[in-house]
Every structure is written in C-alpha cells, then in structure tokens.
Amino acid sequence: QVQLVESGGGLVQAGGSLTLSCAASGRTISGYAMGWFRQAPGKEREFVAAISWNTNIIDYKDSVKGRFTISRDNAKNTVYLQMNSLKPEDTAIYYCAVKGGTYYDTPSRPTEEYDYWGQGTQVTVSS
Asked: How far apart are CA 51 and CA 64, in angstroms?
C-alpha cells in the first residue's frame, strides 16, 4: 500500500506559475511510473502528464506541452508538476497517481491503469 499526498495548489492569475508536489509514503515509488491528472467541475478526470521510473519516458496532454514539466526525485519519493503560463482552463483539482502493479511499467494515460491516488490539490487560475 502506498499513500500519496499532493501539495502546492492555490489561486494564481493567468500567466502565473505553480509547482505541485506529490509525496509518497508506505512504499518506495522509485520503480514505478507516475502520473498527474486533473478534474474540473462537471468533467471527467483527465490525463495531464506521466513519467517513467527512470525519467526516460515522459508524456504530456497536448494542451499543456511546453507549459508543464513533470519530474521526479526518487530519493525523496516525490513527483513534481511545474506549471507555467497558466490559463483559466487549467483550473481543476490535480491528482497524482502511481502505477503500482508492475515494476518498471511504462507510463500511460488511462486513469484505470493507475492503482493508487492522492486526495488532490485545487488549482484555480483567474483571468
């Protein structure tokens, strides 16, 4: 079992930046793919970014490419999402998740392929 806790969300003006953190406990995440997802009011949870255990594979939702950067520090058991040039449409609850079923698995986009989730952190971008 692994517990994930997101932090770093908040209210920011359009064009601003935020860095989200996802700290894992209970088990090391160093060998597992990690992902960031978001859910806006009235919408389904959607993929934002994912990273392989060794950072060799990184994937982004098209609308965040060039603005968001996913990274990880396995020594700290933590994954990050640096968000720049934020837009009002980025407003959502942001969740991190781990593909805890298979060691060295590749990152992917479907939410159902992730086993453990954090409680989420709210990001609000004002226009």
From this structure: 15
